[in-house]
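Lab channel / #folding
Pinned by the channel admin:
"Please post every new chain as: sequence first, then the structure tokens as a reply. Keep commentary short and put observations after the output so the thread stays searchable."

First post following the new format, from NK:
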Amino acid sequence: MRSSKLFSLLQTMNVMLEGSKESLTILIIGGANMCLVQKSRDITHDIDTYTEQENMLQKYRSMVSKARGVDMDWINPSADLVITPKILKDSHVWHKFSNLTVYTPSDAGMLALKVTAARPDSYDLSDAAFLIKKLGIKTTDEIKTIVDYYTPKWWDNFGYTEKFCKEAIEKAYK
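Reply from TO:
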């Protein structure tokens, strides 16, 4: 989906929330964040979200899906698997609709999420490169410091992603 369509779906959700006099707060990560917040690319599969209002998100996800004729997976409410308290603490409002507030992680928080995902055959490498350049990072040690800050201490696979980080730094500055 293009970023303009993603934004339009969020607007539709807000209108529905407004009509019901309910409010919802979400955090967007992943490709939607890279499209809407970072503006580093224009296409992604869905909006990966975290919310403490899971039932409400599910309700409006379904309503928007029916009203706009899009698949239910237009918004993915499963980001709670990767969100840590520090990512939440360092997040800030990206866009405030009347009844929908959309938060974004800090740039460093997004980088930590992209590095820990490090999925082959995805946008993770180019997304990480974009964030590395934006943050002015030059070494894998700087990335490791960010990852160590944002991820749980049990996540100790930096050796696995070190190659990914080196490639992302090279891509950022070529």
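NK: The chain has two domains: 3-105, 108-172.
TO: also worth noting, The first helix runs from residue 3 to 20.
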